[in-house]
Each structure stands twice: as C-alpha cells, then as structure tokens.
From TrEMBL:
Annotated compartments: Secreted
Catalytic activity of the protein: [(1->4)-beta-D-glucosyl]n+m + reduced acceptor + O2 = 4-dehydro-beta-D-glucosyl-[(1->4)-beta-D-glucosyl]n-1 + [(1->4)-beta-D-glucosyl]m + acceptor + H2O
Family per similarity comment: Belongs to the polysaccharide monooxygenase AA9 family.
Enzyme class: oxidoreductase
Region (Disordered): 245-338
Signal sequence interval, chain numbering: 1-20
Protein name: lytic cellulose monooxygenase (C4-dehydrogenating)
Superkingdom of the source species: Eukaryota
Primary localisation category: secreted
Length: 338
C-alpha cells in the first residue's frame, strides 16, 4: 500500500517537473504555421531546432544558451521576408500552456554565415537583437503572463534586412528563481529561416551566446522582481539598427561584447511597436504529448497573483521550490481525474 502511494507520488513529481518548464511549440510566419520539434523526441520536419530537454538553461556562460539544451540543427529552412510577421507559440513540457509569467521575451537574429542554416553551427553565430518585451506599459504585469494565458507573441522582421539564411533566436527568461545568482531560467530557441527580397541591410553590432549576458546583469539577477514599482532592465545589447552602411560591421564584429549598460534601454517595458500579442489558434495541428496534462497546466483556475506554474513565489526559497513543488499540481491533476 505504502509503496504504491510512494510510486504515485514519484510519478506525479516527475510529471510536474516536466510541466513546470517548456519549449517553443510552433512558429507562424506570415500566417503559415510550422510545428516545432518535441524535446527529446525523434526530429520532425521542422525549422525549429530540436532540444533534448524542456529544462531551462542555467548560467549565462552555458554553451546551451545559443539555441537551447543540446540543440540539433533542424531539417527545414523556411521562407520569410523583410517585414514578415513571426508569431511564437510556447508550451509547457506536457503540451499545455507555458508555465511562467515573470521575465522578458527577447528575439535575436544571426546570419548563417557561409552555409545554409540547416548546416550552421550556432556557436559561431553573431547575434543582433530585434525585439524585446518585458513589463507592460500600463503596469498590469508582464507580457510573459499573456504567454502563460495561452497567447502567442508576434514580432516583425526588420524591413530592410539583407536576403539570406538566418537563425531567429527567440528566448524567454523566467525570473521567479532569479533572486539569487544563477537562478534565472533561460529558454532559448532557434528557428531557421531564409529571408528573401533584395535588401542589403545589416546590423550595426553583434554579440555572442554565451557572451552577451552575465549572471549578475540587472535583468538576470533580479532580487526585487516582485517588489512594487520594480522596473526591469533588459540584458544584452540594445535593439540593433539595421542599415545598408552596416555591412562591414556585421561581418567584422564577430566578438563584439554586449553594449555597455549605459546604452542599454533602462526602464523601457514595452514590447517594441512592431510586436503584438494574439491568441494562439486552438486548431493548430501537431504533437500533443498527453491529453491529461493539457488541463493541468492551464493557469486560469488559479486565483492568486503568484500563478506561475513553475513557482512564481515571492519567498527566497523559490529556486528550490521551482524544482520540487508538486503539491498544487497533484491537487489539480487529481481533480482533473475525477
Ligand atoms: C547542455 O544541455 C545538455 C542537454 O540537456 C545537458 O546534458 C548539458 O549538461 C548542458 N550543458 C551545460 C553546461 O549545462
Ligand atoms: C546600434 O544601434 C542601436 C540602435 O540605434 C544603438 O542603441 C547602439 O548603441 C548601436 N550600437 C553600436 C555599437 O553602435
Ligand atoms: Cu520552468
């Protein structure tokens, strides 16, 4: 009897650990949806690089910071254009909603230099930031909370960017554990696109991943993140300017350090004007790992403000609880089974 109970508790614990993290489930480019690879499963025909775990990347110097946990090149390079709308849809490890609500979404691009993106080694990539979204301007919380509520996040590719193959590195950072050094959860993703057109725009500066962040950046170590009036400072470089005069810069600046913090945006909380949030189409096809988990991850039943499913706790022990916090999930899941 007791060992059965222990087994059940163990199973729930495993399940909830998977649900507590997540991955980029699909990308839609100008309305065409491409399903992502399901982490740690057989690679599918997808432009999104396969990662082998939904666990967050930890540590700003982690080599997995470029494209995610043990990322493998993806099979497809899909068409896009300067000015294309790109919508990112995230999911929890169980296929339900993204489980976090505190921290930024940032998007970078990098030329797949000298090859097509399906063969490009992302550790050589020279990244430039094209979008960032943090706290909403009306102080109603984080844009990431909308992702947790099931919405996708859309950006517009730079309108004058040169034709060619690019990785789009779209990243969520979850900050509920970032009260201590190393607690921030990084969720990078890489999508392989081929930009058409005949522009020649290039970024004015590039950075490396790892390299662009430090574990003590004010946007990565955030002990005050739940304090009233907290103003988020984005890590990494400022959003690059794209211009035809920048071509040489983009090629030669391979080891450019992140811009000094004095040039970084300080309290700008808005998604850039080109970005928007929209509902994820519920009819999107694609893998749905377990049907039982879908309802479990839904945050809508929670009435508290700490509703991040991976522990958006305000106490100082939230890093540990991020990993071991099965209780609420067990309850939710049980009621789901009735
Ligand atoms: C990179 O990701 C793989 C797969 O999840 C993991 O085994 C490895 O430990 C990670 N590397 C670091 C430095 O964390
Ligand atoms: C690149 O352009 C951005 C946006 O105008 C600016 O904030 C940044 O300082 C520039 N970086 C360099 C290295 O010139
Ligand atoms: Cu998580």
């Amino acid at each position: 009897m007791e060992s059965q109970y222990t087994l059940i508790v163990l199973l729930f614990t495993l399940i909830t650990q998977v649900l507590a993290h997540g991955y980029l489930k699909s990308v839609a480019i100008d309305g065409t949806t491409y399903e992502g690879n399901v982490p740690d499963q057989t690679p599918s025909n997808s432009p999104i690089r396969l990662i082998d775990s939904v666990e967050p990347v930890k540590g700003a110097s982690n080599p997995n910071l470029s494209c995610g946990q043990d990322a493998q090149n993806a099979a497809l390079v899909v068409p896009a254009n300067p000015g294309s709308q790109v919508a990112f849809s995230w999911a929890s490890g169980g296929g339900g909603n993204w489980p976090h609500n505190t921290g930024p979404l940032m998007t970078y691009m990098a030329v797949c230099d000298g090859t097509t993106c399906d063969k490009f080694d992302a550790s050589n990539a020279r990244w430039f930031k094209i979008d960032e979204a943090g706290q909403k301007s009306d102080s109603s919380g984080w844009v990431q909370a909308d992702i947790m509520n099931g919405q996708s996040y859309s950006i517009t590719l730079p309108s004058d960017i040169a034709a060619g193959d690019y990785l789009i590195r779209h990243e969520i950072i979850a900050l509920q554990g970032a009260v201590s050094v190393g607690g921030a959860e990084f969720y990078p993703s890489c999508t392989q696109v081929r930009v058409g057109g005949n522009n020649d725009g290039a970024p004015n500066a590039t950075v490396s991943f790892p390299g662009a962040y430090s574990d003590t950046d004010p946007g990565i170590l955030t002990p005050n993140v739940y304090n009233p009036g907290f103003e988020y400072v984005f890590p990494g470089p400022p959003i690059a300017s794209i211009g035809s005069g920048n071509g040489n810069n983009a090629v030669s600046n391979s080891d450019a350090p992140p811009a000094p913090s004095s040039t970084a945006p300080t309290s700008s909380a808005l998604p850039s004007s080109s970005a928007s949030i929209s509902d994820v189409p519920t009819s999107a096809p694609g893998p749905s790992p377990t049907s039982a988990s879908t309802s479990v991850a839904s945050p809508s039943s929670s009435s508290t403000s700490n509703s991040g499913s991976c522990g958006d706790w305000k106490s100082n022990d939230n890093w540990a609880r991020d990993t071991y916090r099965p209780r609420r999930f067990v309850k939710t899941r049980r009621s789901g089974l009735h």
